[in-house]
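Annotated sample (chain length 636).
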Amino acid sequence: MSNLQKNSLKESGQHPLIEITATVNGKTLTRIVPNHYRLIDFVREELHLTGNKEGCGAGECGTCSMFVDGVLIKSCLMPVQKVMNATVETVDDLDRDAGRTAIQQAFHKCGSSQCGYCIPGMVMAATSLLRKMPNPDREQIKEGLGGNICRCTGYQKIIDAVELARDVFNKKLPISALEEDVSEPVMGARTPRLDAPGKVTGAIKYAADMELPNMLHMYVLRSPHPYARIVSIDTTAAAALPGVEAVITANDVPGIDNFGVFIDDQPIMAREYVRYTGEAVAAVAAETQDIAMAASKLIAVEYEVLEGVFDPELAMKEGAPQLHDFAKNNITKHTKIRKGDVEEGFRQADLIVEEVYHTAKIEHAYLEPEAGLAYVESDGCVTIHSPSQNITHHRHALAKILGRPINKVRMIMSTVGGGFGGKEDMIYQGMLALAAIKSRRPVRYVFTREESFIASAKRHPFSIQYKMGLKKNGKITATKMVMISDGGAYAMSTPGVMNKSAILGPGPYQIDHVWVDAIGVYTNNTPSGAMRAFGAFQSEFATEAHLDLCAEKLKMDPVQLRMINLMRDGASTHTRQIIDRVLASDCLNAVVDLAGWDHGVPNRHGQDQPNRTDLGKNGVRQSCTLGTHLTKQEAV
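Output written by the structure step:
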């Protein structure tokens, strides 16, 4: 086949085919597949073995780990041609007779699976390690699992599981050690997760694992511009491509096309304007993913590029581009807290400390990329499976968008392969529903890792101006926090994040005079949304960092400074709530005792003072160092 013919096929979403013969999980089979397939595509899309997952597509996360001729490999990096006449072993069939291997039972017993998306790859890596090294120590286990990422567990229970399996293999523990102790009481005791067996074997289905007969695949065309007016969209050529069943734009929305978590400011797809790079403009549902992708390139979009604004402080200035007519000076939410007279509090202070703190925009990096499956049931009910963290809200929003009664919209929360707040936003379910309605066929959409990076909401970046007044004895007299956050192109969770950052920002401290401003701002950046701690992380980080700075200037132990100011029974919070019982000082005392805290000023280096005595003790976490702690002999 000539290069011209190959290019012509590719432009139509077709690819040259190749015949592959391999032994997969003990069965020799032959399949004809597109020549651009990787091993992960061959196993999941052609053989429908979905135990191994694709998390990154770049060989970084290890979720797709399989054995090829007994060697552990990242199947997302291996061209399918490489497995010709090879023997492939996936997690789906590690122990077909017993149901679960000792390693899988150990993962279950130790509670190693949380979201579970990484676990098939972890199981394969642990299997590889124990096959090669039957009696590894804990550091060697860490090294053996080094090619696999987990975003939930903190790894400790995973390592515990491998140690348990090792000891059972070596008969240091009986096989009964893998069994669950069902006699334990439920309250206050470890109990087995009901979904753990499916997660450790790869049998549980995530949205990207789901298939239905006659299913279509969706691909989304996204904006290359951060801010532009859409002059026209021509989908004629895309719709005419063989294999394309539906092309949708904002014009296909039958109901009210605006939604949001707190503010209804977001369309299903860009309507009139695109407001950030990566915003969905149109979507194609086709017989294959390749055809859908090829068709998207045939959609002609004419943009009038506009001047964007990317700095929240500049966005609030007069004359800055206005992203939404209802939001004056691009302010999404301004939360204020005023308690006492902050200027009087500063006049009472012996020391005033000012600093500016910044936190970054952060990607959630859950291992499961966003995915969903939509279809219309026989009674006209539109059903969407997706790992939504807010399905009731999404259902109501989708009913309004689709112009259907609520009983004709059904949201099913599929197994969530990590969320951390990042899957609270309905950024693709509406497109899936529209495509299923228009094509009258089931439609599945799976994000690439690149799409997840570019289109999903991030943790809010903050700029925090902090001013604190203190007496010489450490008592805080006043606190003033002015926090400005980049909310991105749409509000999403910004109002809630501003509220929580303001309420919790000054911390669990009794302060008579408090001033807090938390301001969320629209910009042409990727939208910001919910992420672990939901605004509290940013503001409390600034408060705790500022207290350490104040302790240094007062030449006071940082724990002592906190003890002086912690709320006690009957305290009045910054929002004037009276708290009957406060255990903050008890908690801090307990932590200090457990850590063996060495009291003293924080800045000891270069001060001719003795080194700390609370580091490296039994029960105290080791200081962070790169890599594992192998012995010199092991490291050679």
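Annotation: The chain has 19 helices and 24 strands.
Annotation: The first strand starts at residue 17 and ends at 24.
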